[in-house]
Amino acid sequence: MQLKEGDSAPVFTLPGAGGETLSLAALSGKKIVLYFYPKDDTSGCTKEAIEFNALRDKFAKAGAVIVGMSPDSAKSHDKFRTKYELAFPLAADETKETLSAYGVWVEKSMYGRKYMGVERSTFLIGADGKIAKIWRKVKVPGHAEEVLAAAQGL
């Protein structure tokens, strides 16, 4: 069953970069920009992280917290955050349970070869814990600005 706008956001508690623990419950009462990306330090994922990072003050003014999530380890996230001076949390879902709960751990295909991977997606979660907007199969250029506009309107 695929999540849709208006559904309650699936809860999670996961390790993050810098030894922190990230949970939906701890962010309760805030708007959350939860974006899912395939892999630390790859070209598209790096561009996306840098774009969100550049707008973090505007997201904060809109009352929104940015959280990135991938199946990489917290140690990998530490390196990624340090290398690109990312100032928002990155959650490590190595078990892929949360990725699956959000419907972003999917079968992909490249050059005829099928494999499982993360579908680049963003979920805007309202302060009430409900999903306000979903972007699937995200194209990176301009995406962070589009999410910001939606967060400001929420």
Give a brief rundown of this model:
By secondary structure, the chain is α/β, with parallel strands linked by helices.
Explain the overall architecture.
There is one protein chain. With 154 residues, this protein is of the alpha/beta class. The chain contains 5 helices and 9 strands. The protein has helices spanning 43-54, 56-61, 74-84, 97-101, 143-153, and strands at 13-15, 21-23, 31-36, 64-70, 90-92, 105-110, 113-118, 121-125, 131-135. It has a 5-stranded mixed beta sheet. Strands 1-2 form a two-stranded antiparallel ribbon. Strands 6-7 form a two-stranded antiparallel ribbon. A hairpin with a 2-residue loop joins β6 and β7 (113-118). The longest helix has 12 residues, at 43-54. It is globular. The two termini are 25 Å apart. The model has no long low-confidence stretch (mean pLDDT 96).
